[in-house]
Amino acid sequence: MSQAARIAPDSEPAARLTIAGVEARAVIAPLARPIRTAVGAIPAAPLVLIDVRTKEGVVGRAYLFAYTPLALAPLVRFIADLGCDLVGKAVAPVALMHEFDRRFRLVGTQGLIGMTLSGLDMALWDALARALGAPLAHVLGGEPRPLPAYDSFGVVDLKGDIPAIARSVEQGFRAIKIKIGEHDLARDVVTVAEVRRAIGSSIALMVDYNQSLDPVEARRRIARLAEFELHWVEEPVAAEDVHGHARVRAGSPIPVQTGENWWFPRDMQKAIAAGASDYAMLDAMKIGGVTGWLQAAALADAASLPVSSHIFLETSAHLLTVTPTAHWLEYLDVASAVLAEPCVPHNGTVSPQGPGLGLAWNETAVARYAA
Question: Model pTM greater than 0.90?
Answer without folding.
Answer: yes
